[in-house]
């Protein structure tokens, strides 16, 4: 049995590292899906780990990374995340989860992406017409997760997705499904998450209305009101599988320690609009109060190194978690992620 789990761990690690030769021969699918904001990670903890969290996520941010993870919450929890993205774009998240029984939890979350207004320009007025427009994205999700056994949990999220720019908008529905399995050997956990499976986004709005003259040679006929038809776009579907293992800590960790804990995370991703990629993360916790994290992404254009810290603070009647992450995006500079969650204590 011991040799079997060692082999399983080795195989999982090997499968998360993409075959570079294969990736080089893949067709580049960048730009073939809409709602790219759905690919922006939620929460400073997960971002600091390079997104390698699907098997080990056990907090309110599970609503995004793996809905099965919210079954680890025993009390009502809420969280907020603020990220200053590139080009004056803001990315915000609000989530809440409440136990619905001895083994089930329900949750709600919302993701908002906004940009500063920009002036409208035309061929006639290249320096601006005096009018302004903006663009925004929205995702609203409802999650139900249940622990089927002491070792296995499953969660499902249904969500409404909308993108708007100027006077046009597109919306659709999608769902996520995730599972987590705890293996009773060395604290190994396995996770799976299938996200953004649903309809297509197709822009529509008043700016697409045009007048069409079916017979230009007849001066007596009246033009007909028509509508330009835009192309529908797929959502960025992604399949994520991962592994988490406690290297140092209590229970079945490789090395026993009451005060110190080090956890390793491995994730492999199969997106519908990009090459396969993988992530690895390490998380160190001292006395469950101070946490230091780092992560790295393989086979990604600009996202490589990630760092972060976290603080756990017990308060009267509640527990507060504050996290910060610094993400390196190469020539695009750094991204700072701030997140905070509060849990009602028993």
Count of DSSP H/I helices? 4
Main sheet properties: 14 strands, antiparallel, barrel
N→C terminal distance: 39 Å
Please give the radius of gyration in angstroms: 23 Å
The low-confidence parts are 1-25
Give the SSE order as H and E letters: HHHHEEEEEEEEEEEEEEEEEEEE
* Strand coverage percent: over 45%
Query: Total number of β-strand segments?
Result: 20
Widest sheet, order of strands: 1-2-3-6-7-8-9-13-15-16-17-18-19-20
So what's the overall shape? elongated
Question: Class by helix and strand content?
Answer: mainly beta
Helical amount among residues, as a percent range?
A: under 10%
Mean pLDDT: 87
Question: What would a concise description of this structure say?
Answer:
By secondary structure, the protein is mostly beta strands.
Describe the structure.
The protein has helices at residues 2-16, 20-25, 44-48, 62-65, and strands spanning 77-84, 89-99, 104-115, 118-119, 132-133, 135-147, 152-165, 168-183, 188-198, 204-205, 209-212, 224-227, 238-249, 255-256, 260-271, 277-286, 290-298, 305-315, 318-328, 334-344. The strands form three sheets. Strands 1-2-3-6-7-8-9-13-15-16-17-18-19-20 form a 14-stranded antiparallel beta barrel. A two-stranded antiparallel sheet has the order 4-5. With 346 residues, the protein is mostly beta strands. The longest helix is centred in the first third of the chain and has 15 residues, at 2-16.
């Amino acid at each position: 049995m011991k040799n079997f789990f060692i082999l399983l761990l080795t195989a999982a690690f090997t499968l998360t590292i993409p075959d570079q030769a294969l990736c080089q021969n893949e067709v580049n699918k960048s730009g073939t899906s809409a709602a790219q904001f759905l690919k922006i990670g939620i929460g400073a903890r997960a971002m600091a780990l390079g997104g390698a969290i699907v098997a080990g996520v056990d907090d309110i941010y599970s609503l995004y990374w793996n809905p099965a993870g919210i079954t680890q919450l025993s009390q009502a929890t809420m969280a907020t995340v603020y990220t200053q993205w590139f080009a004056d774009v803001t990315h915000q998240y609000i989530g809440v989860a409440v136990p619905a029984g001895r083994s089930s939890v329900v949750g709600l979350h919302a993701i908002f992406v906004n940009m500063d207004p920009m002036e409208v320009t035309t061929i006639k007025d290249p320096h601006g017409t005096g009018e302004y427009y903006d663009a925004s994205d929205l995702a609203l999700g409802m999650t139900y997760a249940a622990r089927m056994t002491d070792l296995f949990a499953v969660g499902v999220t249904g969500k409404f997705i909308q993108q708007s720019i100027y006077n046009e908008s597109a919306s659709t529905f999608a769902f996520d499904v995730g599972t987590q399995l705890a293996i009773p050997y060395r604290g190994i956990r396995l996770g799976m998450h299938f996200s953004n499976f649903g309809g297509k986004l197709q822009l529509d709005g008043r700016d697409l209305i045009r007048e069409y003259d079916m017979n230009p040679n007849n001066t007596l006929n009246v033009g007909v009101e028509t509508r330009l038809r835009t192309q529908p776009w797929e959502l960025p579907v992604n399949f994520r599988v991962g592994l988490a293992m406690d290297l140092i800590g209590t229970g079945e960790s490789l090395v026993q320690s009451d005060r110190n804990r080090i956890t390793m995370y491995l994730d492999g991703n199969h997106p519908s609009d990009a090459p396969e990629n993988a992530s690895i993360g390490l998380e160190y916790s001292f006395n469950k109060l101070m946490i230091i994290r780092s992560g790295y992404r393989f086979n990604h254009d600009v996202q490589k190194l990630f760092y972060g810290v976290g603080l756990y603070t017990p308060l009267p009647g509640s527990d507060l978690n504050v996290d910060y992450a610094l993400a390196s995006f190469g020539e695009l500079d750094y991204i700072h992620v701030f997140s905070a969650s509060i849990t009602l204590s028993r």
